[in-house]
Amino acid sequence: MTLTGSPAQTPVTDPAGRPAVHALHDRLAAAVRPAAVATRAIDRLRMAHDASHFARTPAAVVTVSGAAEVAALFRAAGGVPVTFRSGGTSLSGQAVTDGILVDVRRHFRDVEILDDGARVRVGPGATVRSVNTRLARHGRMLGPDPASEVACTLGGVVANNSSGMACGTAANSYALLDSVVLVLPSGTTLDTGAPGADDELRAREPALWAGLARIRDRLRGDAALRTGLERQFSLKNTMGYGLNSFLDHHDPVQILARLLVGSEGTLAFLASITMRTVPVLAHTRTGLLVFDDLAAANRALPGLVDSGAATIELLDATSLRVGQGDGAAVDAVPFLGSLTVDQHAAFLVEYRGHSADEVTQLAGDASGLISGLPLRGPRELSADPVAKAGLWTLRKALYAKVAGARPPGTAALLEDVAVPVPDLLATCEGLIALFAKHDYDHAVIFGHAKDGNVHFMLTEDLDDSGTAGGRDRFGRFTDDMVDLVLAHGGTLKAEHGTGRMMSPFVRRQYGDELYEVMREVKRLCDPQGILSPGVVLDDDPTAHLAGLKSAPAVESEVDRCVECGFCEPVCPSRDLTTTPRQRIVLRREMAAARAAGDHALLAELEADYAYDGVDTCAVDGMCGTTCPVLTNTGDLVRRLRGERDHGVADAGWTLAAKHWGATTRAAGLALTLARAVPGAAPVSAALRRVADPEQVPQWSPDLPRGGGRRIPDGLVSTDADLVLFSSCTGAMFGSAGPGAGEAFARLCARAGLRVSAPAGLGSLCCGTPWKSKGLTDGAAAMAQRVLPALWTTTRAGAVPVVSDASSCTEGLRVMIASGPQRYRGLRVLDVVEFTADRILPALTVTDRLARLVLHPTCSATQLGLLDPLRRLAGAVADDVVVPDSWGCCGFAGDRGMLHPELTAAATAPQAWELAGIDADAHVSCNRTCELGMSRATGRDYEHVLEVLERVTR
Question: Which residues pair with 121 in a beta bridge?
């Protein structure tokens, strides 16, 4: 193994590899914290991939918790390169390294609202979505609006100067930056917004201060250089360093702060960022304007820009063909489904205003222009939110559609460029010609037309073997693309950052003189060159073709994964072990080790993956809700669990399925006895040590007594309006109130609804306990009893089945969908939606609460229950608090008892947020989730229907 140092230093090498890693580990652990440093193969390889097509295995991964630890790490690095990584959504290779990878996602998520939302102070690890969630209640938002906002963090957005669909150059990170707290490689920490910050920089870093002042004066004094910079940065431009900082600001400390924007972590670490915000323009009018070809669209572009459109998104002919397969888009624009696409192109335009009147005026003013355009299809600008969502699905799903359809083993490559708007047509036509020249048959062009910023995506086999010639072809295409864009006065990177992809071409875009200025900036800030060497600047003309990752086909459940990282913020194990992306990356690395014959590495990865990848996955499916290619990593984990040799446990779970009533009664009795008998916790811990810890739960005092009967009083046997399928978790885990099933039955009675239950309900289950463990035999045995029972009780599907736990609702739907065709007529509803739609209008709230804390569940999210859940909560309380940090609690059936550390990690942000909030009730919609949140907060959570039943008596 080789630990690559800076160009000026001797690389740290060791033929055996491991001693070098161990020595580095010990040095970093002494400087930071032992728990912060990871050098196991599984820890290094899971961070070897980001969203780009580059891969590098770090020598160590360090999870720092503050600026002081970063400064200490710089001192301990000893010349080994240091790279910072937060969301890992960058597309140009700037978040991978073979040196020290510093994970700043875990401990830098603080968000502080300033000036009633006019400014916000944010840690670099907070996602754009989480910041905007907090700003929304002030009617404000961040200016940059990248499509990856669910996962990208503000640290990455600022470090890449990312922008998005609407912000352009007027509201990007550079334009709206207020101040930063930075840590230089020397260890100097500085708040650029503090009084006297420029004097402090001059005193503590005199060479840096003087060098920045010298470059400022030189650039301002050279008319040719100044003109060249003004032209370059009139576009959206993230190539190289932002030398426009020297023109726009005078004090070296302010120049330095702006140089860090777009520097991709190569000059300093951003420990805190203060940004000015922009108002939320919530009122919109949206339309899809389809033209015969790109030329016709391009002729219409200046007028649309002048009309005040907030966004003008270009879709080429291939994009439209892809969009025709999207049902939501076709529903929004039926004309799209019937269009025979030839050379057509379209603009997705949107007008935004502070009020309905303002946006109506904007749209009205634009209607005259639009009515005169040579369009195919509709011309209206719609205020319908459903139509708007469909159109934006068309635009945002392009990446998913093309990436998801790529051949196995290939990578999806997404690049972006910008040119002056008058050159947009010629550039797009040139790109299309290059696609044909290099045989990229399914490449698409889309992007932000009003800024002259277009993205194009193609797929390629980048395997190291090179047998398919994909890497060479991609290299030839890139050379031609560079020629094309620069010939039109454009920039090779508009918002994705230079990274490793375009670093060899920075000199060519700017010329020798400005390139040398950039090199001087790098030397001034990072004299030893330890911060991400090869990122932003690289004199190796083939650097962009080195270290490319392959994506071998490993498992059908996850082969479509593009490693974008959108899944990571919603994963309950993200702060404990691995994320969905990392689980998939590791499976690919195992496949690579197997193919290479590296049996020692493979054995080590498989051993550690058992816990990190399989045992601590909640299989909650939340990753699938944010994945652009709809990958649910839980499907993979369930299969891997099923492939394990569980010995007698398999037979035991199958037997339990056949005697489920007795099993649940025994479990409830055990919980009741455990609370009455001293020493239950040590006994269960001892059993886990001698038996399979994946089968024996850990009892803890926060668990309730056993529950009661599953069948409420007052049910009928004939002529029912619905069939109640109450969850077995209510029988196992008691509640302080009547329980969800009993509460629902009482509410139905008040609404005049007749309720029945399946025969033998006590022995029936939705199948989730077996499904989550990959135990297909037990799941099948349960389905063979449940489906006929439901079919009979519902009179062949004449009335709905209503489940009182969201995870059971999901489980029953899966069981029906995968079962025999004759049972597909069964309809399963959740008590939340049924009560909100059918029962709530018939109730009168007599004892309204002041404040209620609501925990939505992962299954409720996937089932689309968030709106009815909020309606029920709003019906019983004046103030409904949903934590900004809410997510899956990680209890996941019995996972919270098998691995309580998973629930602790998953709920920690919510528990911290709720610590200072007093409420009259705490509610959710799933019993095990209520247990998880009760454990995390020390407050008793109950089903929302239990509260609704109390306040409507």
Answer: 112, 274
HEC readout, 773-805: HCCHHHHHHHHHHHHHHHHHHCCCCCCCEEECC
Task: State the DSSP H helix or E strand holding residue 111, giving kind and residue range, or none if neither.
Answer: strand 111-114
Count CB atoms within 10 A of the CB of residue 759.
12
Helix (H, G, I), strand (E, B) or coil at 475: helix
| 313 and 348 Cβ atoms separated by less than 8 Å | yes
pLDDT in tens, 337-380: 999 999 999 999 999 999 999 999 999 999 999 999 999 999 99
In the block, tokens 């309006």 appear at 721
Single-letter amino acid, residue 811: G
Burial profile 300-316: b = 16 or more Cβ within 10 angstroms, e = fewer:
bbeebeebebbbbbbbb
Cα(622)–Cα(571) distance, rounded to whole angstroms? Answer: 7
- The one-character DSSP state at 54 is B
* Cα-Cα-Cα-Cα dihedral sign, residues 71, 77, 79, 85: negative
Among candidate residues 627, 633, 653, the one with its CA nearest the CA of residue 586: 633
Instruction: Flag whether the pTM goes above 0.85.
Output: yes
- Sheet (strand 82-85) strand order: 37-38, 60-63, 100-103, 82-85
Residue ranges of alpha helices (H) inside 183-222 are: 197-204, 206-221
H/E run at residue 276: strand 269-276
273: phi then psi, degrees, rounded to nearest 5:
-135, 130
Residue with tokens 């431009």, as numbered in its chain: 237
Tens of pLDDT, residue by residue over 809-846, are 999 999 999 999 999 999 999 999 999 999 999 999 99
How far apart, in Å, are the Cα atoms of 309 and each of 296, 375, 471, 717, 841? 18, 17, 40, 61, 42
Nearest residue to 322 via CA among 406, 200, 258: 406
- Cα atoms in the Cβ-side hemisphere of radius 13 Å centred on 387: 18
What phi-psi label fits residue 382: left (phi over 0), alpha (psi between -120 and 50 degrees) or beta? beta
Comparing CA positions, the residue from 350, 345, 339 lying closest to residue 381 is 350
- Residue carrying structure tokens 């086999």: 461
Could you tell me which residues come within 8 angstroms of residue 241 by beta carbon, excluding any fewer than 6 positions away?
259, 262, 263, 267, 518, 521, 522, 536
